[in-house]
């Protein structure tokens, strides 16, 4: 059992020291994920990679709601989900302030723009579509989340989900088609 897995188990069991010991072991990897996600963001974004990592980590090791981790892949998939939620919350606040929360169409090929602080309506449309997709096929939705919000490659995403690369490719094609149809008809 790796140190990360052992500490994840201890943190889930409520050991407050485990969370403190875990951070140095996963910080660099979480920082890389967040930096990759934030690299596509325009200058002047209200969040930076460091803030995104810290907020996500705090949510992951919240002692009020400890979670059992099924290993490293599960932890990083949860990190991707936490980062998604943080970006969604930021977009909602900005949309409410600036644009009144209106919806716009999103070109799926330009979907990375939807993750920008400057495009909160697109991010909200993506979030709504992902929430709906999650009800229809949770595995496909999880693949989209860890690809978009954690910046994992197809291979890394396949490993995190415990599926083959080929299966991940098929699910990715289905996800793209489903999201395009759902978002473009908004």
Give a topology summary:
Elements: H1 3-12, H2 16-39, H3 49-60, H4 72-99, H5 120-136, H6 138-148, H7 154-161, H8 165-185
Helix pairs in contact: 1-2, 2-3, 3-4, 4-5, 4-6, 5-6, 5-8, 6-7, 6-8, 7-8
Number of domains: 1
End-to-end Cα distance:
46 Å
Low-confidence stretches: 105-110
**Mean pLDDT metric:** 76
**Estimated helix fraction:** over 70%
What is the percentage of strand-forming residues? under 5%
Largest sheet: none
Spatial shape: globular
Would you list the SSEs in sequence order as H and E? HHHHHHHH
Q: Would you tell me the structural class of the helices and strands?
A: mainly alpha
Number of helices: 8
Could you give the count of β-strands? 0
Cα gyration radius (Å): 17 Å
Walkthrough of the structure:
With 186 residues, this protein is mostly helical. The chain has one domain (3-185). The protein contains 8 helices and no strands. The protein has helices spanning 3-12, 16-39, 49-60, 72-99, 120-136, 138-148, 154-161, 165-185. Helix 4 (72-99) packs across helix 5 (120-136). Residues 105-110 have low confidence and may be disordered.
């Amino acid at each position: 059992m790796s140190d990360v897995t052992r500490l994840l188990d201890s943190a889930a069991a409520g050991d407050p020291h485990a969370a403190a010991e875990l951070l140095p072991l996963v910080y660099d990897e979480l920082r890389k994920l967040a930096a990759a996600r934030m690299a596509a963001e325009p200058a002047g974004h209200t969040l930076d990679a460091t803030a995104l990592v810290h907020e996500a980590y705090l949510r992951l090791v919240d002692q009020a709601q400890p979670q059992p981790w099924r290993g490293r892949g599960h932890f990083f998939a949860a990190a991707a989900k936490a980062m998604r939620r943080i970006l969604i919350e930021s977009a909602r606040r900005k949309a409410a302030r600036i644009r009144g929360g209106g919806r716009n169409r999103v070109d799926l090929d330009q979907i990375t723009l939807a993750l920008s602080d400057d495009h909160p309506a697109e991010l909200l449309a993506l979030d709504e579509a992902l929430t709906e997709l999650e009800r229809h096929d949770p595995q496909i939705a999880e693949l989209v989340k860890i690809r978009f919000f954690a910046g994992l490659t197809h291979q890394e995403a396949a490993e995190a989900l415990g599926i083959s690369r080929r299966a991940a490719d098929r699910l990715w094609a289905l996800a793209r088609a489903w999201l395009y149809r759902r978002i473009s008809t908004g």
